[in-house]
Amino acid sequence: MGYQILLSNAAIFLCLPGCIYEPRPTRLKPGVTFEVYTVAAKSSPNTKSLTDPATMSVLNLVTPPVVTAANIRDATVTIDENNHVSFSVNIDEPSAPSAARLESATAVFGTKLAIVINGEITAVPSVVAPISSPFHVSGGSLSAGYWEELVE
Exposure of 134 by Cβ count < 10 A (0-12 exposed, 13-18 middle, 19+ buried)? Predict the structure, then answer.
């Protein structure tokens, strides 16, 4: 199953009908690394290589990352009535440089991103629309327990 990143410009997105419980924004635990990179087609001096465990292919991640844990204001784990898990992330204020970097990095349809948590690629979505804050990661095989271990 693939991953999706969905764009939301309103907090209402986090309260879709059918949520099992009222999500509460939390912070990432100290020591958790959360990075969002754009993926380059070829290796270059400004990329680092990391293997995607889902496909075992080596990806070229453009450095520096677009977003890091230092840019995350809060995160929310949500489970809907069909037991689909999502992880919603709010980054710095919309006027912050990190928000502008994310929107710029996702301006081109089809751009691949790599979400790297604690040094491992956890998702490699393709952009379908420019992304700002908050953004939402869903799909794949990661459980609610996995995402909940990242937040306090």
Answer: buried
